[in-house]
Amino acid sequence: MTTAPVTELMSPSNTRVGWIGTGVMGRSMCGHLLKAGYTVTIFNRTVAKAQPLLDMGAHLADSPHAVASQSDVVFSIVGYPSDVRHVILHPASGVLSGLRPGGIIVDMTTSEPSLACEISVAASSKNCSAIDAPVSGGDRGAKNGTLAIFAGGDESVINKVNPLFSRLGKVNYMGGSGKGQFAKLANQITIASTMLGLVEGMIYAHKAGLNVELFLNAISTGAAGSKSLDLYGSRILKRDFEPGFYVNHFVKDLGICLKECQSMGLALPGLALAQQLYLSLKAHGEGNLGTQALILSLERLNNVSLQSVASSEPSA
């Protein structure tokens, strides 16, 4: 099967898809492409995590290289920049070693902008293309196909891949290679301070003797309303810290942000504070919880607990 030219949009009839990384986000995202009728070959280090996709008809490969050799476009959404480098650039087992000329790499991991540029150059040297396309929206956005996708790279290639992106959410073209990653990092900075404001407001309301559930409902339609409140307010009250996005990965993202700030000569004190509070969660062994677990850091700092809020306070 030959790779479609850049001017031809991708469809199940002309495009074979590769997918690397079937965790909290990747599993749902890949599932949407399977449901749309695409032939999908997958790789995941822990095969058991890929089983739901295999049950849906995906094919299993034993390496990123093997995925790429059977695909026209390969998506990756893994944990850390070191993982991205390994699965894409490893000279023997990486995606680029198995991708034929004309193939496309789409890395949806939140990673380093400089690495995205490095991958793009390496792909171009093999007459392939690379897009950095990290996402925001958490597990619910992944499940519902409503993710915000920040895409960097050649706009014509991004437009070609758009039929696949549209199954996952809304693609936003941010500029050349690395710009998708820069946009995602700015997104994470915004989320970090928003989440901190949310949990501080909840702690304050609790200490003041307010019904925290009623308080959240009251502010949700005002200027303090936010996506973070909508997604995580009720989860926090229910002590539901299941990861829509892991604390460990958020610590990684904020660390990349701080590194970029240093190179830019930027001082972002809110980002630095949020990073310290999330690092505190990691130090307490809570790195595999969701980012909404930030409430635990604030509870410890103030020696208070919202533990009984959900069970003892009346519903709005």
What is the rounded distance between the termini?
A: 58 Å
Task: Report Rg.
Answer: 21 Å
Largest sheet: 6 strands, parallel
CATH homologous superfamily grouping of the largest domain? NAD(P)-binding Rossmann-like Domain
Class from helix and strand fractions: alpha/beta
The quaternary organization reads as single chain
CATH architecture of the largest domain: 3-Layer(aba) Sandwich
Spans of at least 5 consecutive residues whose pLDDT stays below 50 are 1-6, 311-316
Helix residue percentage: 40-55%
Q: Please tell me the total number of domains.
A: 2
Number of strands: 9
What's the pLDDT, averaged over the residues?
Answer: 94
Q: Could you name the CATH class of the largest domain?
A: Alpha Beta
Q: What is the strand arrangement across the widest sheet?
A: 3-2-1-4-5-6
What does this structure look like?
The chain is of the alpha/beta class. It folds into 2 domains: 16-176, NAD(P)-binding Rossmann-like Domain (Rossmann fold, 3-Layer(aba) Sandwich), CATH 3.40.50.720; 183-312, N-(1-d-carboxylethyl)-l-norvaline Dehydrogenase, domain 2, CATH 1.10.1040. Helices cover 53% and strands 12% of the residues. The chain has 15 helices and 9 strands. It has helices at residues 24-35, 47-55, 64-69, 81-89, 95-98, 113-125, 138-144, 155-168, 179-207, 212-219, 227-237, 247-264, 269-283, 294-302, 309-312, and strands spanning 16-20, 39-43, 59-60, 73-76, 104-107, 129-132, 135-136, 147-152, 169-175. The strands form 2 sheets. Strands 3-2-1-4-5-6 form a 6-stranded parallel sheet, sandwiched between helices. Strands 7-8-9 form a 3-stranded mixed sheet. Strand 8, helix 8 (155-168) and strand 9 form a beta-alpha-beta unit. Helix 13 (269-283) packs across helix 14 (294-302). The chain is globular, with a radius of gyration of 21 Å. The model is unreliable at 1-6 and 311-316 (pLDDT under 50).
